[in-house]
Specification:
Its EC number is 2.7.7.18. The protein is an alpha/beta fold. It has 9 helices and 6 strands. It has a 6-stranded parallel beta sheet.
């Protein structure tokens, strides 16, 4: 009950000042899948967000470097996946900037591009414990509201303020999808059909 009261008050305050509530859904999206879409929709619905921005990163600042196909191709798949949802929008600010995609720098740029906006940064439960390692995290936490999606097996303990939401746990990963494609196994219902068609037409993630 306490969480609902806090969120309701926040919503009322923002509406009174005409401040938009925008979610940030960042990731490599290599490729985007239905799990991403379910999380974004649930967060948007539960927190009454006006919009969710999908931000494909250029080079993620992870210690375990991720190899991904070209950013413009990943962005095209994101666009296909979200085009039927008026609350979802593709944002290519990190791809346009190039280099390593640091969330703090991206958020500062977004605040200039989208003034009078309260940003909700969506992360997975597994990312919560790593927040202390994020670049400029103590400054970033002042600029956004972190929203974490609950997941079994993760305690989610952190000194930073995080809003927790529940969403259907769909065990889909981009890594698994790429493996299935390499093995010529179906990815139907794992990704939107338009994305599946795009991958097949472009022969993406195939080694032969």
């Amino acid at each position: 009950m306490e969480k609902v009261q806090v969120l309701t008050a926040t919503t009322r305050d923002l509406e009174a000042t005409n401040i938009k509530r925008i979610g940030i859904m960042g990731g490599t999206f290599n490729p985007i899948h239905n799990g991403h879409l379910i999380i974004a929709e649930q967060v948007a619905s539960q927190l009454a967000l006006d919009q969710v921005l999908f931000l494909p990163n250029n080079i993620p600042p992870h210690v375990d470097k991720k190899k991904a196909i070209e950013g413009n191709v990943r962005a095209e798949m994101v666009n296909l996946a979200i085009e039927d949802n008026s609350h979802f929008k593709l944002e290519t600010i990190e791809l346009a900037k190039g280099g390593v995609s640091y969330s703090y720098n991206t958020v500062l740029a977004l605040k200039k591009k989208y003034p009078a906006t309260s940003f909700y940064f969506i992360i997975g439960a597994d990312e919560v414990e790593y927040l202390p390692k994020w670049y400029q995290i103590d400054e970033l936490i002042k600029e956004v509201i972190f929203v974490a999606v609950r997941r079994h097996g993760y305690q989610g303990k952190t000194k930073y303020q995080v809003i927790w939401v529940d969403a259907p746990l769909i065990e889909i990963s981009s890594t698994d999808i790429r493996k299935r494609i390499e093995q010529h196994t179906s990815i139907k219902y794992l990704v939107p059909q338009k994305v599946a068609n795009f991958i097949e037409d472009r022969r993406l993630y195939q080694n032969d």
